[in-house]
Amino acid sequence: MKGSPEDAHRLRSLAAFFLRLGFTSFGGPAAHVAMMEQEVVRRRGWLTHEAFLDLLGACNLIPGPSSTQMAMSIGYRRAGWKGLVLGGACFILPAAGMTLAIAWAYVRFGQLPRGQAMLYGIKPVILAIVFQALWGLGKTAFRTRPLLLLGAFALAASLLGAHPLVVLLGAGGWMLSLRWTRQRGAACAVLGMPVAWGLAAIPAVGLSSLFLFFLKLGSVLFGSGYVLLAFLKADLVDRWHWLTQAQLLDAVAVGQVTPGPVFTTATFIGYLLKGWVGAVVATVGIFLPSFLLVGLIGLVVPRLRQSPGLAGFLDGVNAGALALMASVTWALSRTAVVDRWTALLGIASAILLIRLKPNPTWLVLGGGLAGCLIQGVVR
């Protein structure tokens, strides 16, 4: 049955937004989420702050790339299953395409293209965008004194090195017990990462083993690109010797410096191992579990909000998720603001965001251009 003009318009607007975001969203998951919040909540009004936080908290509870899953979740809320697939694909494809081009150049010329000057200017701009998102979301996530206190404890735990899942489930459990007991209670939620995983020893890489490896990785991996590095090193370098240590570091570097999800590291590795087909197989393998899991989230989260007790759990998870985002932002600030020029870029971006509310894409592009100019003049 043919969709209505309104459905077609929603799909076109989703595709245009996430394609543009996929080309310009530097800075990692916290920055991606901040740019989504700026557009989806503040500028377009597709979601309320509370609905956005619910999706963010749920995406942090499942394995896979959280910002990519947010793109899928927003797409699902706007246009159902078609929106889920379109939102995720449009966010992933630009990054995967750029990573594939870099992988081709890497194999052909033996080194990575340089983009440090551009990133020098982009990072402080991203920092300003993330701070604005934290401020806006924080007014909803920490709307009561218990949630504010919980957020402070979650932030401290994250800064001290607690596993993100322990922070999220501990925060959710604490709020759940508080709602149910009304006065006081205790909650303990500890979830270990899956450890009994991995394929049997494989003497040579093949397309099926490559797909299964990245499929399993996308199904069990929580955390940042640094966690991804640990998993890749353990199997691809140490156990199976598919890659050298230097190749792995280059692959992760490409995932970090290109816009979009860091998980497109898989695209680079797939190309190194099995060419164009390997790049496609690895990319599909690592992202496929997220499409399935986010579909489940889309069905479950609205029902959680209807239960007072489970809504408390979701509130706690949301507070924990925002605390994790703040922790990542603190780490980002130490690498983004490195001199007076980057400090000025960050301050100027913050002022522009507050006073003029521009599309953050233009700020990111402007930051990259400013970085190239500053680096060219100063150095």
Helix fraction, binned, reads over 70%
Order of helices and strands: HHHHHHHHHHHHHH
- The total domain count is 1
Q: What is the approximate shape?
A: globular
Tell me the number of strands: 0
The fraction of residues in strands falls at under 5%
Number of helices: 14
Distance between the termini: 61 Å
Residue runs with pLDDT of under 50 for 5 or more positions: 183-199
**Structural class of the secondary structure composition?**
mainly alpha
Radius of gyration: 21 Å
Task: Name the quaternary structure.
Answer: single chain
What's the mean pLDDT score? 81
Q: Biggest β-sheet, characterized?
A: none
Task: Please specify the SSE layout and strand pairing.
Blueprint: H1 5-24, H2 29-43, H3 49-60, H4 66-109, H5 116-141, H6 145-159, H7 164-181, H8 207-220, H9 225-239, H10 245-257, H11 265-306, H12 308-336, H13 340-355, H14 360-378
Helix pairs in contact: 1-4, 2-4, 2-5, 3-4, 3-5, 3-11, 3-12, 4-11, 5-12, 5-13, 5-14, 6-7, 6-12, 7-12, 8-11, 9-10, 10-11, 13-14
Characteristic terms for this protein:
379 residues, mainly alpha, 14 helices, globular
Question: Would you mind describing this structure in some detail?
Answer:
This protein has 379 residues and is mostly helical. The protein has one domain. It is 79% helix and 0% strand. The chain is built from 14 helices and no strands. The protein has helices at 5-24, 29-43, 49-60, 66-109, 116-141, 145-159, 164-181, 207-220, 225-239, 245-257, 265-306, 308-336, 340-355, 360-378. The protein is globular, with a radius of gyration of 21 Å. The model is unreliable at 183-199 (pLDDT under 50).
